[in-house]
Amino acid sequence: MNTHFILQKDSKQITFDSNEEDVSLFAFSLQKTFDRNGNNVFVNIRDPEAYYQDVQYLLDESKIHRNQALEELLSGKYKFKYNPKKLIDEFILSPNRRSKRYLTLKNDYFRILSNYAIISKRLLEIQKKTEEEFPDMAERLNLIDEVLMKCFRRGENVIKCYLKYKKYMNLDIDDLTTQAELQSEYIKDLFSMVDKRQNISDEMEIQYTLDAYRRLTELSSNFVNILRICIEFIEGVEEPKLNDKFINNCKLIKMNSKYSRIVEFIDPSIRHSESHINTKVIQGQKMVQITENMKGERKIIAEYQFDEIKDMKKHLERLVLPSLITSFSANEIALFDMILMSPEYLTLLVHIGNKKIAYP
Fold first, then answer.
1. Side-chain-facing half-sphere of 121: CA atoms under 13 Å
2. CA 301, CA 294: separation in Å to the nearest integer?
3. Does position 358 have pLDDT exceeding 50, yes or no?
4. How confident is the model over 94-151, as pLDDT tens digits?
5. Which of 157, 177, 253, 315 is the most buried (most CB within 10 A)?
6. DSSP label at 207?
7. Per residue in 38-97, pLDDT tens?
8. Which residues, at least 6 apart from 201, have a Cβ–Cβ distance to it below 8 Å?
9. How confident is the model at residue 25 (pLDDT cuts 50, 70, 90)?
10. Rounded-to-integer distance, Cα 273 and Cα 280, Å
11. Which helix (H) or strand (E) holds 71?
């Protein structure tokens, strides 16, 4: 049998043409995978028979493995003793994806896939209920999801999408969700105590409202930074800054007519003003002035009535921040769904423990 094949990189290529059995076996052992940057590479696999067995297992054309895994999870017969998300993250970013350390991902593939299917279904049910009860939130959820999708769920291949996501998504969504819950409890307790106090002045009450508003804007700041990055990508910026000032992030988003509503009710000057003692409560007028020292002269940059501050705090707490947390969580789950179902990820799995040399 005569074997003829070409290995090529850019303008360089090597041509093989032989009737030797070893060359034929070498040609059949070459399979495509992806390097650390998500680019195609060819590798010489150690055991072609095991490779094709793994391919058949992961394709699961009869859906036997998938159905069995789903039943195990729903019945409680199987419970994860590790964090699948963290292990997948480590695996994709690893310089040594062939390590047998990651065999669990291959062996548990259908359990992990089914687990994310269950999570996705529950999240969709919650979102649907939320959208029916709160139409304003539905619009924000759709806008934020569109921004995140265009930025992180579209690309050459899903591996590159995830690498981009990890480069720019410099926040821990689970941790921020926990912080938001703690701040919500703090604000709830704070205003419960305020309500019980007698003869509290309007001026003192607005100070508590401003404190709550600043805490909520602080929580939103990391999300807003990511959205600014995504909108810059959408607008054609090739390498957005990883971090920018909160006020600059809000300004850029507000300049985008389509997505400006995402940061409605967020005024970074209120958050910033406290550290420089630039908040002035006008007694008797129920007004708050936000000032800034410009060349030795204090100037007013924003004015709000007490009721406006209270309304902004309410919307930030009940609408804006929940929309951000929900959308970012949903985006991450959607991205992992994409990864698990992608041919790129399956290609990486079949090479675990079965790869020799890479041929770029």
1. 8
2. 11
3. no
4. 998 988 899 999 999 999 999 999 999 998 898 888 888 888 888 899 999 999 999 9
5. 253
6. H
7. 888 877 778 888 888 888 999 898 999 999 999 999 999 999 999 999 999 999 999 989
8. none
9. very low
10. 10
11. helix 64-75
Alpha carbon distance 158, 204 (integer Å): 53
Short-list 208, 74, 163, 83, CA closest to 348 = 163
Cβ neighbour number for residue 159 with a 10 Å cutoff: 23
Contact 227, 144 (CB under 8 A): yes
The residues near 9 (Cβ < 8 Å, ≥ 6 apart) are 360
Residues 42 and 219: their CA atoms lie apart, in Å, by: 45
Instruction: Using pLDDT thresholds of 50, 70 and 90, give the confidence band for residue 348.
Output: very high
- pLDDT tens digits for 140-167? 999 999 999 999 999 878 999 999 999 9
- Among 148, 47, 64, 49, which residue's Cα sits nearest to residue 355? 47
Partners of 3 in beta bridges: 18
Is 143 within 8 Å of 259 (Cβ atoms)? yes
C-alpha closest to that of 206 among 311, 340, 306, 345:
306
Q: Give the tokens for residue 88.
A: 């997948």
The two beta strands, 279-282 and 3-9, are: unpaired
- CA–CA distance, 196 with 217 (Å, rounded to integer): 26
Q: Round to the nearest angstrom and report the end-to-end CA distance of the chain.
A: 26
For residues 149 and 327, what is the distance between their CA atoms, to the nearest angstrom? 10
SS3 state at 19: coil
Confidence of residue 30 (pLDDT cuts 50, 70, 90): low
